[in-house]
Amino acid sequence: MDDSSSGSSTPRRRMRSGGVALGGMGLLAAALVACGSSNEPDKRCADRVTLEKLNTKECRSGGRGSYYYGGSVANNRVSGGSFNKSAVTRGGIGGHSSSSGG
């Protein structure tokens, strides 16, 4: 006769590590949501004329770049965003960037 199917009255031991792991994952998820829910759009440094993505130091005082908000970078060129921060919105996890038209 197999002991595992005998319905013995010995209580099963609960593993606490599963609960700890789940709790840790919850904290991580909360931290990610808090970081991703900023109303600040993504920004990167770019040349206003050529739309070339530049090193961040080029956007500091005296540099030739300006901050470009939202959009994306392809072939080292920015697109889909704006140099006007207020024209771009961001909506946390699952959100998207968009430019306002006019």
What's the helical proportion of residues?
Answer: 10-25%
Structure class:
alpha+beta
Give the end-to-end Cα distance, rounded to a whole number of Å. Answer: 80 Å
Radius of gyration: 25 Å
Order of helical and strand elements: HEEEEE
Layout of secondary structure:
Layout: H1 17-36, E1 43-46, E2 66-74, E3 77-82, E4 88-89, E5 98-99
Antiparallel strand pairs: 1-2, 2-3, 4-5
Descriptive report:
The structure is a single chain. The chain is α+β, with helices and mostly antiparallel strands and 102 residues long. The chain is built from 1 helix and 5 strands, in the order αβββββ. The chain is 20% helix and 23% strand. The chain has one helix at residues 17-36; strands spanning 43-46, 66-74, 77-82, 88-89, 98-99. The strands form 2 sheets. Strands 1-2-3 form a 3-stranded antiparallel beta sheet, with no helix packed on it. Strands 4-5 form a two-stranded antiparallel ribbon. The protein is elongated.
Brief write-up:
By secondary structure, the chain is an alpha+beta fold.
Which short descriptors sum up this protein?
about 100 residues; alpha+beta; 3-stranded antiparallel sheet; 1 helix; 5 strands; elongated; disordered C terminus
